[in-house]
Design brief:
It is a single chain. With about 200 residues, the chain is mainly alpha-helical. About 55% of the residues lie in helices and about 5% in strands. α3 runs antiparallel to α4, α4 packs antiparallel against α5 and α4 packs across α6. It is rod-shaped, with a radius of gyration of 31 Å.
Length: about 200
């Protein structure tokens, strides 16, 4: 406990400086201090718990560290969200570009211009276009790992089934050699969408 002639900071002064005026009873303020590792180490003139300037300085320093950490986390979270949106936009552009390039190749019934919405392809050509887009998406996910925050990602993989392939140069090379593969699901969807 502090000596009687030392300056002490009452619980009411702490409440007025750091908390809302209706923040709680003195016991609640003392509990907040204990939670931060600071004990009320003095008494005021009325015999109520109080804090010495050293205790207030320690408490203040801990509050500042927590506030800084919270601000850093918010900034990191906002950056991760921006990075995720940009990554997703780049993946979508890669898929779209591959589909447009494939759709311009001559097929059984001519070409298609997806930019203006006209389609003059048959189901097989349309399935080939879908497969090219899926392959581009797979290759993008292999070449560009998703943005992460604290080791976690905000986005799911859409085109890859195996997360171990994400960011893998070997998987990317194998995918490039293998090329796009038209599946039965592509043919079924193409038949329904074209008809």
């Amino acid at each position: 406990m502090a000596k009687s002639e030392d300056r002490v900071v009452s619980v009411d002064e702490v409440r007025a400086a750091w908390f809302r005026h209706d923040a709680g009873e003195p016991e609640w303020i003392c509990a907040q201090a204990r939670h931060m590792g600071v004990e009320p180490d003095a008494v005021d003139v009325f015999g109520r718990p109080a804090f010495t300037p050293a205790a207030i300085a320690k408490w203040s320093a801990k509050r500042d560290v927590l506030a800084r950490a919270a601000g850093d986390h918010e900034a990191a979270w906002a950056q991760a969200q921006r990075d995720s949106k940009a990554w997703q936009a780049r993946r979508t552009a890669a898929v779209r570009d591959a589909q447009e390039a494939e759709s311009r190749k001559p097929g059984k019934r001519g070409g298609a211009d997806f930019a203006v919405g006209t389609l003059s392809q048959g189901p097989e050509d349309y399935a080939r276009v879908r497969a090219a887009g899926r392959h581009a998406g797979e290759q993008f996910e292999r070449a560009n790992p998703r943005p992460r925050i604290n080791g976690n990602t905000l986005l799911p993989l859409v085109y890859l089934d195996d997360e171990s392939e994400e960011g893998s140069l070997v998987a990317r090379a194998v995918g490039a050699v293998r090329g796009p593969k038209v599946t039965d699901a592509d043919r079924e969807v193409a038949a329904v969408e074209v008809l």
